Amino acid sequence: MEQAAFIKKYATTRQHTDSLKWDALQARYGNPDLLAMWVADMEFKVPEQVTQALQERVAHGIYGYSITPDRYYQAFIDWEQARHGLTLKRDWIRFGSGVVNSLYALVNILTQPGDGVLILTPVYYPFFNAVRDNHRQLVTSELRNDRGHYTIDFEDVEQQIKANEVRLFIQCSPHNPVGRIWSEDEETRLLALCEQYHVLVISDEIHQDLEIDRTNHPFKSALTVANGRFSNRVIVVNAPSKTFNLAALLNSHLVIPNPKLRQRYDAQIGRFSQTEISVLGQVAGQTAYESGAAWLDQILAIVRDNYHYLCTTFAAHAPKLVLADLQGTYLTWLDLRAYVQPAATKAFIQDQCQLAVDFGEWFSPDDQGFVRLNLATNPQNVREAAQRIVTCLSQMQK
Fold this sequence. Notes:
- This protein is of the alpha/beta class.
- 41% of the residues lie in helices and 15% in strands.
């Protein structure tokens, strides 16, 4: 399908649908009229096969207790193998209502109060809460930033592990918000440090399918790094929600290859959350994995074009703006500091540009002056956001 036809068919408006992104603007930002470029979900309808499958299930009219069918397991296993070369076994797979809930439970299950838990910042802000709310010691290592290209400071990572008795590392792969897909060399070096210092790893891979350039920057699960050398200390959490825009259906996965960690998880998870998928989440996820690949490829092409539009527009009209290299996720990380004082970022973006964004300090206290923009949206929204930023910067310089 041509991109224009795809956008006409699938792009939609979401105001007055109880959308967090659009209908909570007054509550979250104090202004219901902002252009919403925050929240990591899409302005695109799910694959039509998913809608049809949900309609058929709803027509049955009964929503009693259900089981996860063999077909769901197989759809997920086949997707991981076909898309990422990841071979899963059924007994490794567990379910949750969302990745964040799983993070909270895993931090509690895998560590003790006061243990050090390491994260690489800037990072998705619930990581901070999952550590602090469980009364663990939050340990951070700031990524190195070379004009939008982010890399891991391995020396600092090792120092932080040793100095703070780190017992658990939570990684984001691909990394939200900076858009990096870690290379196998980077992952090997990072996981080798965890192996050396007996650190367990939670790998949040919810953005795994959102590869912007699969040829040059393919995603590789932590479970397959170095031919699976580190898989016994890794628990992967992921979901179809980011890939197929299904967040409200409350369906996520945990992949736990190590039988001792599985036993530990199974023995304790009942204290924290349910372990079954919602019936509609199961239907949607299964159908998406079976028939959603072509739809996803269209979405990725739109995200890629939206990113390139921002790059060319800013290069032409505000060349000191820095967009982080976008390798994975549909989120772009924008550095405004060359034009806007960090403390004035909110006034500029929200009050002048009239945009609702995720602000840099949400991801790290050291990243005021950055904003995160969602590119999984109609290109006209991206063009409008870019024009507002460029126009407001131009007015500031007069």
